[in-house]
Amino acid sequence: MTIRTLQGLLASLLSMALMTVGCTAGDTSNRIEAAVCAQASYATFRTFPSSYRAPTRILVGPDSTNLPIQETWLLEGNTTARRGADVAMTGVDPSRPGTSIAQFDVTSCATSTVTPASPAWFQTLTTDGAGYLATTMNGRNATLLRLDASGVTISETELGEMLTSATLVSENDILVIGASFDEQPRPSVIVLDRRTLQVRRSIYLHRTNLMVMSAELIDGRLYYPVTLDGTTEATSLGVVDIATGEQSSIELGSPAPMLVRRLGRYLFVGHKFLSPQPSYRHVSRIDVATGKVTGFDASGGIVQIEPSQGSLLVVATDAAGEPSTVETYDPESLERTSSAPLPPGRKGEMFGGILPLHP
Predict the structure, then answer these.
(1) Residue 95 pLDDT > 80, yes or no?
(2) Residues near 267 by Cβ (< 8 Å), separated by ≥ 6?
(3) pTM for the predicted model, two decimal places
(4) Angle at Cα 136 formed by Cα 134 and Cα 138, nearest 5°?
C-alpha cells in the first residue's frame, strides 16, 4: 500500500467520525463489581464496526459491561473527554442515523448513553471543564462547538475548510489541529480565545504532510509527531510556540512517531505509523525541560500508549500484528515492570483501546 493510499484511507476514516451529542440519557446494566473497578488500572474496550448490530463491551478484570453503541475507538484519544470521574467517548448506534456519546464513570465503572435529539457528526471531542468542545463538518468546512454538560450548544465558530483531527485546551487558548483536503494533507493548528472562541491565528505545521492525530500542549508550546516528510518516514517531534508561531523540532532517532502522551516531566512518543506493525515497537522519552531523548523497545508493535498511576501503559502486538498485551513501564528507569495479556475478543469484535481508570 502506498503512502498516498494510506493518507487517503486515514482521511476517509476521519471524515466518517465520530459523535453526536443530545440531552436524553439512559443507563445500561452495570455488571462490573465496584471492588474490581477500584483495583484495576485500566478497562479494555472491544467494539464492532457499524455493519454489525452488537454493543461495545467494556472489560475490567473478570467482569464486563455493555454499551449499546459501536465504533468506540480510544487509540488516539482525540474523541474522548474527561470531566472529573466521567469519561465521554463517541460511538455509533446502528438503529438511528448519526452517532452517540457514551459516559463511563472510572470510579464505579457505571455506564450511560446519550441519545441526540437530531443527528450530528463530530470529529473531535474534548472538555473545557464546564462542558465540552467538539468539531463538526458542514461539507468541507469545519466548525468548533461549545456545549454545556447536558450537550446543548452554547456557541460556535467557523474554522474554514479543513478536516479536524484533535482539539486541545490550555488556560487561555483552544487549539484545533486539522489538515487540508489535498492528496498530501497540509496540517495546521488554529488558535482560538478560550473564552470567546475568536480565532487568534492559524499556524501551518510545515514539518509534516500527514494529519496530526495526537499532540500535547505544555507551557505554550505544541508538541506533535512528524510522521512523514514528503514520502519519507520522519524521525522527529515538531515544536510550535503558540504565541509567536516559531517552530523547531526534536530529533528522536526512530522512524514514524505517531502517538504523544505526557507523563510528569516527560513526553512519551509511540512509533507506530498509521497502523500497528510488529516492527514498529519503539517508544521515545523526551525530558521537556532539557530536550534529552532516550527510549525503549516494547515486546511488539506499538498500538497505544497511556499514562496510568505514574507509569506508562503500552499496548503491543503479537507477531501477527494483532493487539495482544498491555505492558507497564517505569517512566524513570524505562524498565518493564509487568505484562498482561489483553482479554480475548469475540467473533467480529475489534480492539477499541484501553482506558486508564486512574491516570
Answers:
(1) no
(2) 216, 218, 223, 237, 260, 261, 285, 286, 288
(3) 0.89
(4) 160
Distances (CA, A) of 271 to 41, 102, 144, 188, 213: 23, 29, 30, 21, 13
Q: Give the span between the Cα atoms of 256 and 228, in whole angstroms.
A: 7
**3-state helix/strand/coil string of 124-159:** EEEECCCCEEEEEEECCEEEEEEECCCCCEEEEEEE
* H or E element at residue 34: helix 34-39
Cell digits of residue 335: 524498565
Say whether 121 sits in a helix, a strand or coil. Answer: coil
Query: pLDDT, tens digit, for every residue of 278-292?
Result: 999 999 999 999 999
Residue 219's identity, in one-letter code, is D
| Rounded mean pLDDT, 143-152 | 86
The set of cell numbers assigned to 53 is 448490530
Closest CA to 69 of 90, 87, 55, 48: 55
CA-nearest of 71, 74, 111, 76 to 94 is: 71
303-333 residue pLDDT tens: 999 999 999 999 999 999 999 999 999 999 9
Q: Among candidates 174, 171, 193, 75, which has minimal Cα distance to 132?
A: 174
Set of cell numbers at residue 64: 464486563
